[in-house]
User: Fold this.
Amino acid sequence: MISQTYTILNPSGFHARPTKAFVQAASAFPCKVSVIKGGRKVNGKSSLSMLTLGIQHNDEVTLEVDGEQEEQAQKTLSELLTKIYEE
Assistant:
């Protein structure tokens, strides 16, 4: 299992568009993907679960990936967590 904490850089936080991109990318990997914010841990392959975290600009979230292709998943998903999306 790989676990790493990231700061959300997108000024609008993690709204529908970045959440959709993250979930689509996470779903492409066979490993388990979890996102943790403020003690709440959710399935990173579920848009609804991700949106319930209410991730805002400068929030810290922890990404946990466990299983097959976890290193590739962590690299891809970490880029999406720290990406700044155009409005």
